[in-house]
């Protein structure tokens, strides 16, 4: 008895083009109305393009996160190890900017694929926390090794920036987790003040810090930019402490 003819294999679904993937990423992306200026207008659009490329070549969100970490820490290592020159500054800035864009791409890719995982979110946050502290440690090491003169006042600058950055990161993540545990939704709705808020929070954007390293070969100019970003981030933290506590106090009162 002859065997029954086998069914014809189904055709593989056509691969989406970069443009089609970009359109899906725009539809699946989280709102950016209140994101800081650089993240809103530069980093997320750049991350969207990188996420589309990653989807095209078949990378997973965790793999994009890992690449982001490698690129970012290559830039941080360059800052700590190499004597500051205009070329070193530009290369470090490019590495940091690319790493930050990939940090946006992994989340966008996860949403495109239907949502992320707990391990993926954990990996992303661990790398974010490490890079936020390490970049300022690298600046401190560079100042100590290469700046003339490397006095205590100069070294306090990156030490203070690292402290402020760590508290901002921890406060943001902790408040978000406490709000999720209390079943609270988003706190901010899109509105006419969103563009103004993007400008006001711009100095606290990690992306602008990445760009500032293009000045690393010109110490006076870099110090001015670095100090301005430190002051802006400190102001953001001060406002955040008030806002976070008020949000949590409202949830306590509603219980």
TrEMBL record:
The chain crosses the membrane at residues 87-105, 153-174, 222-242. PROSITE patterns: CDP_ALCOHOL_P_TRANSF (PS00379). GO terms for molecular function: phosphotransferase activity, for other substituted phosphate groups. It comes from the Bacteria. GO terms for cellular component: membrane. One of its GO terms (biological process) is phospholipid biosynthetic process. InterPro entries: CDP-OH_P_trans, CDP-OH_PTrfase_TM_dom, CDP_ALCOHOL_P_TRANSF_CS. Keywords: Membrane, Transferase, Transmembrane, Transmembrane helix. Pfam families: CDP-OH_P_transf (PF01066). Belongs to the CDP-alcohol phosphatidyltransferase class-I family. This is Phosphatidylglycerophosphate synthase.
